[in-house]
Fold each of these.
Amino acid sequence: MNKNATKKLFKGAGKDSILLKLLLVFLFFASSLSAQIPINGFCKVDVLFEGIKDDADFLPDNIMPADLDRDGSYEFILLRNNKNLMAVVSGNKYRRFNFGQTVNELEFYSSSKNSNIFCWLSRKSRNVGLATISKNGILSKNKIKKFDDVPSRITCLDLNSDGNKEIIVGGYAFEGLTLINAGKKNTYAYSQITDNRVFPLIASADFDYDGFSDIVAYDILANRLVFFYNNQELSFSESRKIELSDYPEDLIASDVNSDGFTDLLISYGDRLRVFVGDTVSSFRNSFDIELPVKSDDLIVSDLNGDGINDLLMASYSEGEVYLIYGKAGSEFYEPLLLYKDRNLADISVYKEKGLPKLALLLRDGKIIVISRVNKFGDFDLTSFGSDALSLGIVAGERNIPEAYFYIDKNRNDLILITLNKRLIPDTLYRYPLQDSYNIVKTVKHKNKIDFYFYNPNTSLIEILRLDLFRPTRRILYTKGRIKDLLLFNDRLEDRQRIYTVTENKSRLLLETYDYRDFRFVRAGADSAGNNPLAAALEYETYPAIFSLINENDSLVLIKKEIKRLAAKEDSVKLGAFYLSDLTKINLECYKDPQSNELITAVILTESTLTKFILLGSETIIDFEIKNIRPVEYTIQFKKKGNRLEMFFVDAATAKLKKIVLKEDYKTVETDTVLDSETVNNYISFPFKNNSDLILYAPGSNNNIIKLRIIR
């Protein structure tokens, strides 16, 4: 399908340099391969059509959006090439037609009050014709011409400015370029623009800026571009040529660098070459753009509404769509993975009510549309990466979300997306990390955000400070394997302290690391016990270490409060358990930010039964639930009045569950938060009107993040 009439072009960007300095026990990064990309809300993902479920023969190859009934909302024309089938999708309904022959190219030709006319090409039958689709979705078609050669490319444009389009035909097995001119009463005139050569790629633009469209075509035998200038009377003069070094796969004429002049874009599969236009279309200067994967399709369009053209690139073999935002001038941001699905069949861009939208067609007929977010609420978002780990939210004043983040597991990058005042995704920041991490903790102060990354049972902590989003980085190595980490910001002494409880050769350690203004000051380590089964940290008046030990086949919870000069230790015997029966022992601490009440949760999992023991300042509650197994490090608590809510991902079903303890924790209820969804990871955040904002990565798609407000 020839989409050059609707598909236009893009840009790519270099990366800042990296400076590494080794400083004592820290590895310090003064600058970073960070990126700042204005997405301006273009990230909303909607499934508009679930596919044609009752017709196994109709697995479409191509999609074309069109406002067939003139109501401002677009319908979609789907083609199944090798079955000679076409369908028109409107809302959740569709009408299927047998086109009578294979259609390989479909391009908009003209419209009237009651219908739209499209030009079609069939390589198999060697025909070019017109198809009319009424506003009621009724198809009629006629054949214009059957060629002796095999056409494979059509371009429709008004060459003589009379309001009617002409058709230019070329192809890989087609001699020259043929011009088809429509006359009265369905009559057509045919002429040769040129012959004796083969032109598989055709593009058009007003290269001499005289108000009439000219043609540039790729001569495959000579491996060069040939310009044909319009003489304004449906005749052309062959002009200059541009010799090429490699064999191109696509050719587009568009204002790639948004400077007001038409450029030429050549695709070589894994890279692009842009011939830069000027006042006389000299194309003397050029530059290359490297692509992350081989390109099968290109579109140029301003998707984020900043007045600068962006590039969409699809690789159907990889099932990936990349978005490359344009900067001012001949510069581009790095490619962002916009969507990933092995069933990807086709893409197309259209404007609906003035807003750009991207239609994605999957091989099962499903239609997905990516557009700009216009209102905060329940919606699906592209993650701009894949395999999102460690989702989190950065809150500002009055606990209003200012940004969300996650770790792109495939690239080991932190992706941070800021929200504007309307809570719409605004700007994407990308920061490379040393590893992928399961645990991320944040501290926000003034214009700075500190991120602490680590994996449990390892000894590495990566620290990233964003000062007005400028990164500074350090690596900290602990003496033991990390069980938990606690952050404390001492404003009086202008000091930050990291508390870590670690295990080294069955010894429990409390390690502390102090720094001021992100400069290391001192470190210390104190013994905190032996042979722990689990350990956690929390801060009341002083930091406290909680640990579980086995004492004569009984589980004992030990709380050790670290004061300035001494340590105070308390213990609670939880009861006798056969440790060999336990498949998992979790220890979690929760401090309610409003009441400062501390709750310690011991979670003991057997094969089909999980026992919960919750210890408050004055109470101990225990209960059992069958067929639930909380995934470690997914447990989150929330206190709401006399209710305590505990969220977690259930290992048995991969679904997000919620346990609610009501009436001062005397009544226990269990509920599935997201009924039909499996969840890889999530963050639960207190939101307006006593609701919860759930941001989660579903198990069904590793390129989507979903936002839901649970009341």
Amino acid sequence: MTIGHGSIHDDVGENLLIVNKMARVFRQGKLWSRNRDGNVSLAVGDIFTSKEEFLNVMKDYCVQHGVSLRKIKNTRSRYTQRCINNDYPFKIHAVVLVDKCTWMIRSLNEGHKCPNTQFNKHASSKCVATKLLDEFKDNPNMDKGTMQKTLMRRFGVPDYTCWRVRKLMKNVVEGRHDEGYKGIIKTLKNIMPQASRRICVLHFYKNFASLYPGAWFDCFFYIAANAYSEFVFKKAMDKIKDKDISDFHWLRDNEPLEHWARFKFDQTLKVDDNTNNFVESFNNAIVKHREKPTYTMLEEIRKLIGARFDKRFQISADWDGKVTPFVEKKLKKVELESRNYCNLVPAGRGEFAVREGSTNFTVKLAYHYCDFQRWQVSGIPCKHVARCILSLNHKLDDYCYPWFNVESYRKLYDGIIHPIPDSCLWGESELPALDPPFELRKRGRIEKHKRRKSRLPIPPQLSTIQLSGTKRKKPQQKTGNPVGRPRKIQRLSLASTSTAAASGVPTQSS
């Protein structure tokens, strides 16, 4: 094309000619659309926006009617298919229009009467997955047998295609595992470097008991782990040290005391839990989402937490007390214990001496201090502090840490977790893509290691076998540890025995 007025007028005239021709075509034909029931019907004059759309419609037509076609012509301007059985006259012919993009059916002979095939080669896994996707979204836990019967009845696909279809639909609904790792680059340590770490005492004791079993160690281990004061902790550890010093070194060197001993917990957190029961409760709530890819799993957890925030905020609106109902139950129990087991000696100005059994504890209400140290660690008054508070006719909830108030609870759940738009609307990211780790698996069948509980030698099981051609029986050891090298016994056949006897050579039976 050259720059000039003549060339511009030529282009305009050519475009007008194409428009006029396309207008005549659309007056003669119609733009193809699927039937209301979702079935595919073809007719002469049907127009398709592209060749790709035409091929997809032909694939749906073959799957719907259970027919098999073969290509006769496949070029940029023409496409022809006919029945794979030459005895039947089915044939379809489509051509490209003047715009070089739109396609139209020029001729169609639907005289197709050949029997349907059991397995349709046009029903690929991708094609079937698109047809069954809406049903799978409504019932993602569809039974595999039900899905297999449905696919076989509607599309005529073999068993192995059913598994591929299920995998494709699951990737579409739940997301792919390789896509779920995108965006997770920073680790927990980089995100929350100031967070403290604890371990579950129950699991820690299981590791300890596997090496040092016994009820005696069980008793003193839990005394040391649950002690709020350093004095009680050292007394319990000394008992373990006197019994077995290796146990003492294992507890001291295996994990830092800040991870499992209560007296070493950070007192600013006001949490004395040394088990992971609340974590197990959360895992039980998300167990059905844990097998999903990372992004889908996090999205489901976000929905779960958002709904839980709203529910707990609505529940807290009906509370009238100063502290939460959970703390009220604890305070009632502490109040009962303080009246039954503690004796009080006031010293003045908010200081007291509380005697429990043969032990004295000092309490300073103004400084929120108690020798038992449970008040400092948990933030809730212990029985020694409660005895002092009740002697002053004060309320126990006034001495609880502010985090346990109803107002603090409401402030925690007052915010909302905003919904997130679909991932297709996020746009492109400049961060590098994070691929999932490769699954390293050895070839062949996985070996099964049968570990025996006892290390004692296995007693051998002896049996005898009959030597051929003789009356002698040979002992045979099946199991156990063989002692020494067994003597080789040559087996003699009946023919060799008779030959040796005739020649005068002695045999083993003689």
Amino acid sequence: MIQFNCGGSLSTTTKWTIKNCTSTRCAFEIILNEKVMTTYSELYIPSRTLAYGVYQLTLTVTMIDSPNLKSSSSAYVRITATGITANLVQLGTSMITRGDQQDLLFDPGTFSVDPDEDIFDATKWKYTYYCRIYDLYNFPNVQGILLSIDDSRIDPYNPSCLSNRSGLIFGNLTLSPNSSLTVLGGSLQLNQMYQFMVYMENRKNSSIQATGYVLVTVEVTHPQLIAVGCVISSMCVPNLEFQLLNPTTQVALFTVCIGTCTNLESIKWNIYQGSENSTSSNSTQWTLFNQTSSYENIWFFGTNTSNFTATDLLFLNNLQISLWRFEVVYTFLSPMIGIGIMVELFSLVPSIFIVQFFRRIRPRRQISPLRQALEKIRSLPHTNSKDKTIIKNKKQQFTFPWWCLFIAYTFSFMIIAVSIFFIIVKGIIFGDLKTQQWLTSVLTGFFSSIILTQPIKILGLAVFFTLFCRNPNDDKEAKEYIDETNFELDGDEDYLHSNDFSLISNSSKRITRLNENEVAFLREQRLKDTQMWSITREFMIYAIFLILLCNQYSQPITGIPAAIHQHYIN
């Protein structure tokens, strides 16, 4: 019988060594950073640790009790340059929305990414830009050679995005020529989608190239630029105009609002599924995924936040769909209405001051000397304690003489003149676009004042003064028109009842009849009033119709240009 008798230990040690190889041999051992663990059976080397070249990686296993017993195995690895990611906008966002009067900035020299370097060096590359009207035409070309966006040649079958090349501004012409491109506002058509492409070529090695894409939707509004990126960038691999994802992993996205993003009301994510367009092989037809709400917090998380996650269940349960689009929509409160309301609130104090100034100006009264003497004689012998109280209360009211009316009107016109002066000055400083926005906010503030602000101020002040400042036994406005000391009737008044009874009823009413001329005059005035009301009503009907027509015309109607184009082609 054979028995195995081994009293020694079978423990081993492992050691990784890395050597740089030349064309003939691998003799130069590389000393790695101490953070790289070389004593495990697995070796992990962080990115940008090894320079470009060929390396020999050797794993040696040695017996602890018998150091002479060892074994090794090698593998050869070539380190090459990683392809750059060409980004036209921040975070490599593939689709954005801009206003027709907003400048459109593409800056691949700043936003592109080189995984092998900490900072992208824009001076090492050449930049060429292309543009096409998406979903309708291909990129303009002549015999298969693409025409750049600034090329004056014309492709009759694929028109250019711009009818006038003066709306293009290339930046960084000294250090890195054409590394940025600005398309001025007004150069692109409304309610149209454009696809921009940048082709980048290495200056030293023309075989190293990169291409970046972005879709731009042009609207009549002035939206902010929203950038979308992957939380883990290595899980989103750029592939032309798309990004490759592993269907067995989740996708985590985040958004950043570029610029002034105040008055944010809501954030909403939309998911679309894509298919090849039947009319064109160079565009994708997107359909809204209608089960988003059903699978919220199951497949989708954070649909109303800036961080969105879609689990792998979305892809695994829809394997027939290979193209997905994730869109985020930011909704902002209208700044025009906010500015209008703020302007009205700031003007509340001067408005109240001017109104009170006008209200406290006494009317101009011209009383004859005889009437003044009679009133003075009548009031002297009959002044009792109650009359003194009434006179005292009337004396407490603070009023201005009638000639202050000229001062009030002068003050009002001065405010108007100062406002016009500031509009002119600020218009010169701000420029046309900001001046239009400012005047729009003024008009919006005017209408919001009529519809919203002024009614709220009137109701609020009425409730405040009624509850806290008004004495129910002292009605000042009524006393302005009612004189409790005067019991005589006016010329057009009669007593309804009398204490004197008589069998003969003699009417004491004084009847004033109109003559023929006065009746004709009143009839003519009434006819004019009726005609004026008819004209006003007709004007209002036409105004409402015009507003509805303008509103319908201003709404973005997508699909009609494509439908018309398809109709004429067929």
Amino acid sequence: MVWYGGGLIPARFVARENRFMAKVEIGREVALAHIQNTGRLKEILTVGRRVYLIRADNPNRKTRYTVILADIEGTLVSVDSGVVNRMLHEYLADKKFPPFSS
């Protein structure tokens, strides 16, 4: 499965600043996080929703975090629009994708 290095950081969604930026609360700290999805996500990214972040590796980025998942009533929903491509690449490389495994 596609893993995010360094682990997931739980946070609360506060606001969507623009198409690519969210304001999140990590403990008592309010921070900006990148959203790798230009969709509206209006039903997913709601105020107070638990989200999961990863820490950015690039020190030159505008944000230290990226929003990866949202918790909707116990179901984790990906807001990372690039995850499908990475998953398919990994499954095909490991021959774990059933239609192509033989």
